[in-house]
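Board notes (copied after class):
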Amino acid sequence: MDVGAIYEEAFGQIHDGVHHVVDGLAMSQLAWRADPEANSIAWLVWHLTRVQDDHVSEVAGDEQRWISGGWVERFALPYVPEATGYGQGADEVGAIAVEAEVLTAYYDAVHQHTIEFVRTLTATDLEHVVDRRFDPPVTLGQRLVSVVEDDLQHVGQAAFIRGLFERAKMTP
């Protein structure tokens, strides 16, 4: 298995998780929060998608799909266009209201871009330093592992939230 195939498999797991968590949910279910300070499924999936879009676009030298694909306008969120969710407070988290189809369509556009990029990678590419703000500097391989790890955590959190209201037979 080559490097690109390994990353393709990892990002494929995220893809499957996102669709499993989001598909079939109403907007109210996507926006449901266990308490006023908690994240919603919609926010978690939007955030993991934004992080992947931001980080992969940067290392690929491309424009983010959020901007180039018109997603910022479709979502019409009260955030600055560059927002990825880092540092957002409870009010900002609660501001996201989106249909499942729009959420997964944006995710799918980012996923497709990610897969196209990772398919081009070689083992040597992974050693390339992409961020010198850290000591030691961050390589491409480390950055991609970080995105996979972050995204998997968030899709797991979203699945937990879905499980909460499904087990309680709640219809938020």
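Comment from the instructor: Residues 3-167 form a domain with the Four Helix Bundle (Hemerythrin (Met), subunit A) fold (CATH 1.20.120.450). Helices lie at 3-22, 27-31, 41-60, 65-68, 71-75, 90-94, 100-118, 140-167.
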